[in-house]
Amino acid sequence: MFKKTPLAAGIAAVATIIFAGGCAVADAGKNGKVDYTAMTPHELAEYLIFEANGGGFNLAQEMQEGGTARDRMKQDELQKACSIIGDGKPDAETLEAVRQAATESIVYPEGGIQLGDWERGRVLAWSGFGYRVGHNYDDHNVREVGGTCYNCHQFATDRVGGNVGPSLTGYGKTRGTSEPILKYVYDMIYNPHTYFPCTHMPRFGSSGFLDKQAIADIMAYMFDPESPVNE
Amino acid sequence: MLKKALLAIPVALALGATAHAEKPPEEVLQGLIDSIDSRYLTQSEMNLMMMPDNPALWVGMDGEDLFHTPRGPNNVSMEACDFGKGPGVLEGAYVEMPRYFDDTGKVMDLETRIVHCMTEVQGFAADDPAVRQRHGSGSDHMKIQTYIAMQSNGMEWNNPLDHPLEKAMRDAGQVLFARRAGMSDFNCYACHGQSGKQVRASVLPNANVPEDWTKAISWPAHRVGHDNVRSSQHRVRGCYYQMRQAGMLAGSDASIALISYWTDMARGQPAILPDMKR
């Protein structure tokens, strides 16, 4: 993901050393017993997730997107770069690398950004279903994947939304539907790190969480003059 | 209301007999509310009113019976088990967990220590329902956990970090707290790094505010929305579930590391046991 920058190579190299180091320590414990205290906190955290007693999670479970939980727990470059103890930001160079990679990840629909069906978008924006695993697996054949948008945002005021992210009430009414604002919202849903590197908002497009139709419908919910968001 | 209050009196008398329990959980919480301006602590007026009648109090009473009754193939009670302060000593034991236990060479939280007691001391098989069933107010686990935890009500969280393993687990837990992964890129800070934030209608506790955080980690608690008493392990599992990360395994060292860190974050604040949550 960051392969184009020397910095990213550095991050990757460090990550490789940490991981290799963790394994070496784990294998070389005295009496065949793994010594947690010989590892750095990062090495131990990785060991506890992936190795200790077969792993701290149900790693063999198959995921909705394919692969196993083991794959899902592996961090990509962005997740590594943005995992900061204390919830601070990485240095400016890393942030710029995150931002640049995010921008490059965004794929636009053929024929440009179009608004879809706001009524379906309203359902999707409300739904918290999708991609949960473990003890109560979200079966995507039974129900379609939602956007979990209301978890963090307020939209139309007929339902209570969260405030982890900004309120989006009246979004289209106050901003119009010009090409730049549609692109901005599409980018924010697809990969918000292009504007806010290391934001807590998920990358709904880049991760494959939402497909293009779902993004178009949720955007319609935000922009359509008929949508209750714009009452 | 009066009838309910009268019903609660015998429970308070039966369970409030220890020296440190002179302040019932609702007064411990009120002390925190008086000390800080927090939307999280005050979000449910109904729960505050209901706390003297917390259903978890009854679950804890059942746990008292289970704890002191000889059980299992070895026909011994849990009084023979050491929860960190000597066999059968429960007062203040829970607020000093997770901790290192010499007999296992491991850092253990309350739930894994109860499993150890059931299997090693009482002789239950690992797949016996008493051991295996971890969740729900009707489970032996929740009854016993609630009873043991209540003997730490009002006492300050103070999990020891003197042993190198305790420190290692706490530090790894700090890394896990910040570690982003999964379909949503979330870590624990996504929900617990700021004050006054809410997911849908629920106001979230801020891990950086110890007065908030002590309530957040005060499990067992009766979770009103689930109509069941829930544990720390249940909470951690639920967080990983909502974060779209992998399914956490009950009692894994990863879960104990995280609980070691989250307990450290509430250090010095009084525990609310049992608590009542949305």
Calculate Rg of chain B over CA atoms.
18 Å
Number of helices of chain A: 9
Order of helices and strands of chain B: HHHHHEEHHHHHEEHEEHHE
Helicity level of chain B: 40-55%
Shape of chain A: globular
CATH architecture level-2 label of the largest domain in chain A: Orthogonal Bundle
Euclidean distance between termini CA atoms of chain B: 20 Å
SS-based structural class of chain B? mainly alpha
DSSP helix fraction of chain A = 40-55%
* N-to-C order of helices and strands of chain A: HHHHHHHHH
CATH class of chain B: Mainly Alpha
Structural class of chain A: mainly alpha
CATH homologous superfamily of chain B - what is it? Cytochrome c-like domain
Given the structure, what is the number of helices of chain B?
Answer: 13
Low-confidence stretches of chain B: 1-7, 16-20
Task: State the total count of DSSP E strands of chain B.
Answer: 7
Task: Characterise the protein shown here.
The complex is a heterodimer of chains A (231) and B (278). The longest helix of chain A is centred in the first third of the chain and has 22 residues, at 6-27. In chain A, helix 6 (118-126) crosses helix 9. Chain A has 231 residues and is mostly helical. The radius of gyration of chain A is 21 Å and the shape is globular. Chain A has two domains: 6-105, no CATH class; 118-230, Orthogonal Bundle (Cytochrome Bc1 Complex, Chain D, domain 2). Chain A has helices spanning 6-27, 41-50, 69-73, 77-81, 92-105, 118-126, 171-175, 179-190, 212-223. With 278 residues, chain B is mainly α. Chain B has a single domain, classed as Cytochrome Bc1 Complex, Chain D, domain 2, CATH 1.10.760. Chain B contains 13 helices and seven strands. Chain B has helices at residues 2-15, 25-35, 39-42, 45-50, 55-68, 110-121, 129-132, 140-150, 164-178, 189-192, 210-216, 232-242, 253-265; strands at residues 99-101, 106-108, 198-199, 202-203, 221-223, 228-230, 275-277. In chain B, the strands form three sheets. Chain B has a three-stranded mixed sheet with strand order 6-5-7. In chain B, a hairpin with a 2-residue loop joins strand 3 and strand 4 (202-203). In chain B, helix 5 crosses helix 8 and helix 9 (164-178) crosses helix 13 (253-265). The longest helix of chain B is centred in the middle third of the chain and has 15 residues, at 164-178. Chain B is globular and about 50 Å long. The model of chain B is unreliable at 1-7 and 16-20 (pLDDT under 50). The interface between A and B is large, with 53 and 49 residues.
